[in-house]
Amino acid sequence: MAAARDESLRARIEVARGDRDADLLLANARVVNVFTGEIASANVAIAGTRVAGVSPALRRGREVIDLGGACVVPGLVDAHLHVESSHLVPAEFARAVVPLGTTAVVTDPHEIANVLGLEGVRYMIEASRGLPLDVFVMVPSSVPATDMETAGAALGPAEIRTALGFERTIGLAEVMNFPGVVGADARVLEKIAEAPGRPVDGHAPRLRGPGLQAYAAAGIESDHECTTLEEAREKLRCGLWLFIREGSAARNLEALLPAVTDATHPRVAFACDDRSAADILAEGHVDHVVRTAIRKGLDPVRAITLATLNPARRFGLPFRGAVAPGYSADLVVTRDLADLRASLVLKDGRVAARDGELVLGPIAGAAGGAGVPAESVRVTPLSGDAFRIAARGPRARAIEIVPDQIVTRSAVVAVRAVDGAVAADPANDVAKIAVVERHRASGRVGRGLVKGFGIRNGALASTFAHDSHNLVVLGDSDDDMLAAARRVIEMQGGFAVVSGGRVSSELALPIAGILSPRPFEEVARAEKGLVEACRALGVVPRVPFLTLAFLALPVIPELKITDFGLVDVVNFRLVDLFDV
């Protein structure tokens, strides 16, 4: 092994000197230098998996690709995401994003961990082995996110210690219980203490002032939950890395882009967080974020740096994120730097994708699901009155949707009562919502109201519901809500849209109730069909099921719902629907 390594290094040095043919020479390129901000004409000589040299003087290669003046940029890196939010198994996720220029991702598999615990983390690591995509894993720190919901598993300090020993685990993922950190909760601090010297990511929406100071003092190093420029600047002042998120449900790029300055840009990176297969197919992945940033006025080289060198430096990934001697030959070739459409993608010095198609294979584990329990959706049979809410007053709390955000408002609405029970009020855009515990068949159901979803004459149900992934159902008819819930239970997880008692669109997610084994394109088409079915019912949010998923996440202000009931996230406590 040592001899082979020495020979590889020697060969790279000889190629860099011009004394040996490169394995691959990218000739007549315009190379983007993320260290200096320059774009220079050069040839890129590759030896093995690394770049040996970048110079017009390097002209020898066993294989030569003449780029004819096209630009070469580093492979794109997603600084923070959940692969599970695409509903694709890792192999299909790679097939979707590598042709777009993504060559590495830093993922937090807490979605599947909330269902299956450490076995879910192991599954994601094993299923991403051998892909033309580097999948680095941050160990989930918040399973469950709070004690006000029921998850399928719990990861304490001992489990985190074990997971940090798994291959490709590089740090501790987003610490979502920020009130616990600020309050010095011993259970939360014990988890942070398990990762000394490792990156520790944060998750602290709207946290500012002394609370933010305390959060940073605990060793939290980043945040991807900023929604305002002032919040972003304050977190940068505290030394946190700013991950600017542009996902499917939460789009924060435009609001936060002014935070990127000559002084701050070395501490900023781009992240997709939660991005659906349909959006990846229609818009792109990290390339879409870079493209959008450039269109909004950010210098193209700086935008690329935020998606390459910066995330590599943040996570201590050596010799990544640049087109430079000794760096990994993870490269993207594009004719138009501002548009950033990849005509060629190289992974470890080999052509991985060409003109939007993956060519490096075969992909291991493409079927996915191996080792995952066949049945993870366990629900006590739902009765006809499962979603009935007794009317106990003229007014009630409601979760109010904020367009293109995952934060919500806590609203108060007039109650429409029918036969002593709360009914949806479509005329005032008030729907009913319920969260059904689905891991232990406890029969527990949390019930509430949602304002701003726009649904009329139907319901939708899902077992993908951040982060505990209980069964969440929303609609303006108890009967349709019941039909939608029963359908996703029958599918052992997934999405369903129902109107008039009939299922109009669905997508089965039988792997842990959150992933599909189907090909990327089929999942994307099914997601598009679900959105169209929702639009027919008047649904307003651009990504209905991701928006629905976040309504059940009790660490995002202001009001959310779990199987225990309504959660006042600002004060971190359960509240009564009618206590207004």
Q: Which CATH first-tier class of the largest domain would you pick?
A: Alpha Beta
Number of strands: 30
Most strands sheet:
9 strands, mixed
Class derived from helix and strand content? alpha/beta
- Please tell me how large the radius of gyration is: 24 Å
CATH topology of the largest domain: TIM Barrel
Q: In percent, how much strand structure appears in the residues?
A: 25-35%
Task: Provide a compact summary of the structure.
Helices cover 26% and strands 27% of the residues. With 580 residues, it is of the alpha/beta class. It folds into three domains: 2-69, Roll (Urease, subunit C, domain 1), CATH 2.30.40; 75-344, Alpha-Beta Barrel (TIM Barrel), CATH 3.20.20.140; 395-575, no CATH class.
Topology of helices and strands:
Elements: H1 2-17, E1 24-32, E2 39-47, E3 50-55, E4 64-66, E5 71-74, E6 76-81, H2 90-97, E7 102-107, H3 110-116, H4 118-127, E8 134-139, H5 157-163, E9 169-175, H6 178-182, H7 186-193, E10 200-202, H8 209-217, E11 222-223, H9 229-237, E12 241-245, H10 253-256, E13 268-271, H11 277-282, H12 286-295, H13 300-306, H14 309-314, E14 331-334, E15 342-347, E16 350-354, E17 357-358, E18 395-401, E19 408-414, E20 416-418, E21 421-423, E22 430-436, E23 445-451, E24 459-462, E25 471-475, H15 478-490, E26 494-499, E27 502-508, H16 520-536, H17 544-550, E28 559-562, E29 565-568, E30 573-575
Parallel strand pairs: 1-4, 1-5, 6-7, 7-8, 8-9, 9-10, 11-12, 12-13, 18-23
Antiparallel strand pairs: 1-2, 2-3, 5-14, 14-15, 15-16, 16-17, 18-19, 20-21, 22-23, 22-25, 24-25, 24-26, 26-27, 28-29, 29-30
Helix pairs in contact: 3-4, 12-13
